Amino acid sequence: MLSAEEQREILAEMAHYPDKKSVCIDAMKIVQRHRGWVSDENLCDLAEFLEMSLDDLDGVATFYNLIYRKPVGRHVILLCDSVSCWIMGYERIREELRGKLAVQPGETTLDSRFTFLPIVCLGACDHAPVMMVDSDLHRDLTPQNLEGILDKYK
Amino acid sequence: MTPARETPLTKNMRADGDAPDLKAYEASGGYQAARKALRMAPAEIADIVKQSNLRGRGGAGFPTGAKWSFVPMGKDAPHPKYLVCNADEMEPGTFKDRLLLEGDPHQLIEGMIVAALAIEADIAYIFLRGEYALSAQRLEKAIHAAYSCHFLGKNIFGSGRNLELFLHLSAGRYMCGEETGLLNALEGKRANPRSKPPYPQVSGLWGKPTIVQNVETLCNVHHIVANGAEWFKGLSFTKSGGTKLYGASGKVKRPGLWELPMGTPMREILEEHAGGMCDGVKFRGVLPGGASTDFLTEQHLDVALDFDEVQKVGSRLGTGTMIVLDDQTCPVGMCWNLEQFFAQESCGWCTPCWSGLRFAARILKAMEDGQGKDGDIEKLEYQSWFCAPGNTFCALAPGAVEPLQSGIKYFREDFERHIREKRCPWR
Questions:
Q1: Chain B nearest CA to A98, separation (Å)
Q2: Which of A68, B114, B240, B371 has the fewest C-beta atoms lying within 10 Å of its C-beta?
Q3: Contacts of B257 in chain A (CB under 8 A)
Q4: Is the separation of the CB atoms in A133 and A149 below 8 Å?
Q5: Report field, pTM of the whole predicted structure over 0.95
Q6: pLDDT at B1
Q7: 8 A C-beta contact, residue B346 and residue B397
Q8: A29: which chain B residues are within 8 Å (Cβ-Cβ)?
């Protein structure tokens, strides 16, 4: 069941569009903000609420990088793997994160603290390599300054 | 030596990186162009923009005035009409719109008001990529302030005209930056491209007339209306008017962004503004305008960075943000990184794109892993042809193979060495 709060937020966004279906991306992001990810059950509830087919909605959900169809940790690390970060040595950062978190890109740590995902260019190429943790951008990464950044997220 | 240059797009940017609020923006002359535009006929606004030679700053460089001229106007035109700001900045190596969005959000809103008046749009959206959290926060605040002062909403500036402006935060996919893919994404669908015609100007969002413009393009519009077409043309070194936000990333001493006259020579930007190459590395090549532009090399350094001039030497101005290749970085590895990105971000709608790019990325990866074979370079050349304009549904694949085809052209010896030595010489 969608919570009253979720429904209220979705209806507020719906006012920006001429039909119900158009709000579906916003709606999935709202659910994700409350629950961390979008489960099969959430998707069914949303499809019903927005009067669209479940398959259509899942097709949209799986198209977009920032809609999570699997549970994620308390914090999500998005490490840029695009060209400027690649030139500036993102691979060293990736290896460092792999070691520190003991997970592969795409996985969540055993204590559910972090999910580590690759992401395309974050548009901060003058400070490459960069990553986001939740909605914070961290720039000019080095294997040395990673530890201090991760420490901020419990 | 050089006269003081005007920098209309960045003149309000604060040293502390904070954005001017509505009051500060108005104190610097803000929202005067919107008031002026309200006293003008839509055709007058469109005409000034056309005369100014403003060309789209999102990558394709389409003349803005010409784009607007296809929108049905007058009392028989279908409504609502839509204006969409493409703030889905996801082209690898491109970070210019972020500066405009974070540094001066009211500038974008004013540009959008003026553009909306020119095409008689009723509803405007800012389509912002989901990862730009700070931009979202500042835009929301600015939009709210503009609504509170009745610069947006009903009866804007007491004129009797209405304009709604909504922020749409995307969920992340490079395809959303493609004009018609973006329209599908705004309608809550997968961001597959649409077939054209009908063009969005006639049948766009929910089948209504729609104009989609890049952030930087829209940020120029009200300056043109305020100061005139001749002023705008005078800002530029070349025929295409205005200033341009140029950027550089890679191993240069001072990576960054600079607002400079359109047509500034590439050498000036890389050597003076970016401070030249980092110590110990040498320049080998550059993608002049983001990931989907052709490599240029040493021999092209004196090219004026302008739409026509860059095209003459075999590449594109694109977004104007340069990615520099140095001699310590493997050109084959760089092509692999680029093609891997495009293959992953392809929407899968047409065959050359989903199949060709994946195939190319796989060959490049094999070369990097020391498993390159004779004939691989020819296969990559074939894929470049396979993905060329005319063979695909949208511009993603043709753009994707630009760095590949030119990478092979200028660094063929390096590709051959990977195959011959069965290893990447840079690893």
A1: 20
A2: B371
A3: 126
A4: yes
A5: yes
A6: 46
A7: yes
A8: 130, 169, 171
Tokens linked to B382: 């074939």
Of B233, B241, B324, the residue nearest B276 (C-alpha): B324
pLDDT of residue B4: 65
Choose among B98, B107, B144, B120: nearest CA to B44. Answer: B120
pLDDT for B16 equals 87
pLDDT tens for chain A, residues 1 to 154: 999 999 999 999 999 999 999 999 999 999 999 999 999 999 999 999 999 999 999 999 999 999 999 999 999 999 999 999 999 999 999 999 999 999 999 999 999 999 999 999 999 999 999 999 999 999 999 999 999 999 999 9
Kindly list the strands in the beta sheet with B321-326, ordered across the sheet, starting from the edge strand earlier in the chain: B256-261, B243-250, B321-326, B283-287
Kindly determine whether residue A126 and residue B256, on different chains, have CB atoms separated by under 8 Å: yes
Closest CA to B235 of B53, B44, B25: B53
Q: State how far Cα A79 lies from the chain centre.
A: 11
Measured CA to CA, the distance from residue A42 to residue A54 in angstroms comes to 11
Question: Measured between CA atoms, how close is B254 to chain A, in angstroms?
Answer: 8
Mutate to test the interface with A, among B170, B249, B354 (most CBs of A within 10 A): B249
Kind of pairing, strands B164-169 and B256-261? unpaired
The C-alpha of B279 sits at a distance from chain A's nearest C-alpha, in angstroms, of 14
Determine, for residues A87 and B250 on separate chains, whether the beta-carbon distance falls below 8 Å.
yes
Among partner residues A81, A125, A132, which is closest to B131 by beta-carbon distance? A132
Q: Which residue has the tokens 């729609």?
A: B210
DSSP conformational letter for A126: G
Under a CB-based contact definition with an 8 Å cutoff, are residues A79 and A116 in contact?
yes
The ipTM, to two decimals, is 0.97
% of chain B residues with pLDDT over 90: 96
